[in-house]
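> tool_call: predict_assembly(chains=two)
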Amino acid sequence: MNTSPEAVVAARGAREARQADVAAALAEFLPRRAVLYRHEDTAPYECDALTAYRTSPLLVVLPDTEAEVAAALKVCHRMGVPVIARGAGTGLSGGATPHHWGVVLSLAKFNRILRIDPRARTAVVQCGVRNAAISEAAAPYGLYYAPDPSSQIACTIGGNVAENSGGVHCLKYGLTLHNVLRVCGFMADGEPVEFGSLALDVPGLDLLSIIVGSEGMLAITTEVTVKLVPKPQSARCIMASFDDIESAGAAVASVIAGGIIPAGLELMDKAMTAAVEAFVHADYDLDAAAILLCESDGSVEEVEEEILRMEEVLKAAGASRLEVSRDEAQRLRFWSGRKNAFPASGSISPDYMCMDSTIPRKRLAEMLRAIQQMQERYGLRCVNVFHAGDGNLHPLILFDAEEPDEMRRCELFGADILETSVRLGGTVTGEHGVGVEKLNSMCVQFAPAERAQFLAVKHAFDPLESLNPGKVIPTLHRCAEYGKMHVHRGLLPFPNLPRF
Amino acid sequence: MDPQDPALARLIDQVDRARSQRAPLDIRGGGTKTFYGGLPSGEPLDVKDLEGISSYEPTELVVTARAGTALAELEAVLYAHGQCLPFEPPRFSAGGTVGGMTAAGLSGPARASVGSIRDHVLGVTLLNGRGEVLTFGGQVAKNVAGYDVSRLLVGSLGILGVICEVSLKVLPMNRATATLCFDWNESRALEQVNLWASQPLPMHASAWHEGRLRVRLSGAVAAVNAACGRLGGAPIAADAATAWWLSLRDQTHDFFALDDTDLTRGECLWRLSLPSTAPPVELPGRQIIEWNGAQRWWRTGAELGLVRAAAARAGGHATLVRGADKSGGVFTPLPGALLRIHRGLKQAFDPACIFNPGRLYAGL
């Protein structure tokens, strides 16, 4: 790269000229206030919740109507400008990280609930509606939207569709895919399109399956029809303590082996429990090596029956302390720590990186042991929360970005967790998506022919690669580079070079 | 899966040959669903040798089976561990396979309450048109690494490649089940099942036929007992109830029997997939309504255009499941944007267009 002062000035000039050209083309179809290009206006869009990765976008577009979305897409398509869709920006893998030469398409203004049909148990909402707002609007009908990612008070349904978000209740109620009927939006060239339908299936290939979780790489979502489910009459939660991680892991398997599918089954390790107890004061057992939260929901009779069976199984699995929530206030207190795991981690460390891999349930204890060893290897602490019921781990690596080298070691620690997950029969991301964060780990999980097939799928929807380019699917070149670096794990050459 | 595996290596050879000759292949398992979709053509590619359950751990709630594994065998193994395929895949005759089940993508009576086969597929190993063996998804329930290709393959009728192995989410069998019967007309039945489905009841399946609604409840003992008390209706004996739901799942009920005379007369079996709350559909003939109104089987001699228009008016689509004349297409035609994506995907997986041509749509 030529970094002489003249070259830098020339590059800046080229970008400003491009910015002016694209802004002028967009201004033909969008109101002036909907196109942002001054640095102070675009700065808030430089990252999503993966704040370690930042890029200044060429422009930010804030359309008000579907016609404006289509027009913006047509302009970008014609001019070869990359488009990065953005909802609330709560994503943890950099799915909405901007492109230096691209437009951020903020869909924040699409925030209306269009229709709730209690008889059909559906809600038609615009993509910028918050996840929790759907359940709030459905509550008067005794219905709710089941997937409940931790960020549900802020994250949008469009973002949930992009990531196929889960949450603590997806063991029983499924992921976003299982709770979405129809997605309406636009192709990269601005053509309107509809995936799924109000019926339970569609003719032809099940394209909805591939749109959900496609991280804004295949189409732009503007409207989503979700399924609503009846709110259970009753819910109770058991908090069980275990003296060692192995028996906690075995208890998870025993619950499932007992023919029980809990509404939620969560595990926190000792370090995490200490962090959340200091944060929420929920009277967690600070001596336990691991705490399990096991929830039953359904009719009053059903919950009564299931809680008894759960108690039996957990006792037999060696729980050292066991408490069943007596009322709703206590149940919510049990959950308060788990739901606040991320902010609690923020309170004990200047920075943290949240990982998100899935492993077979039976490998939980093995994984925790491996993470303990990694803490020593990388010289960083790690606290753990798991969606234990479906083997989805969220290790939170604690670091201080101000300390030289800690960010680098944190990334290596994270990659090690992901690659260990693949080796144990799992996957590098359970619900947060690949984004930019896990591109290297995708090289480990998928063979070159599989990655080439992913790329071919992308081209079937977006032949010019204008939607969210460079995310999710690593290039062959990148994987080759990563393979070379692997040889010297922990001793990366040129650690200060940016690697994305 | 190991490409060196002899059964798989033979399939790869056959695909490589077909590709170089641009000769179509007709992917075959048990051959129990050849009636479904467009007419099969091409040289048979038999996946029956790709056989056996590769892994099954009941506490992981996942089973992985090779494509040629008999569906009956798989379900028997699950049953022995108190587990099941919750989506109740149909068995139209003996010999159906796991691969055929996945490629056809059909689900049984419980679909509206527990989800479809697509919802339960966790991973697929595919042999694509380039002769490459690729694995998508995996053996864990939460997995968003890369596009969800495994679920795209469900119901693809083999047009994207040979499904070699499938990982499925399984569930414990419910502890209690009961079937209740109500003598109601179509409108009343549709109204009531949708109302029940919006309440916290252990609704598991519903079917309306000739003035009678049957509702299956399934779940915890206490929940089923309480719901029986609340819903009323006449309980059906367990054996008779099981037989009834199986006759719907496998289409052995008289309603589905179309003999040669019926077919020559132009009688057809249609499947209308509609929003569950769509009002009664007006067509000549007889029907069975399942999935709380979302699946309506019609046995009718009405012409194709009439049936498709009725389904479209109701907000859904119509599939010609059995009929003598498939020249008008089996599945509802796709709008332009979706058709282009279909063509792009066909090109992406099977550039030489060798797999199951015409089974889904002409030209794909």
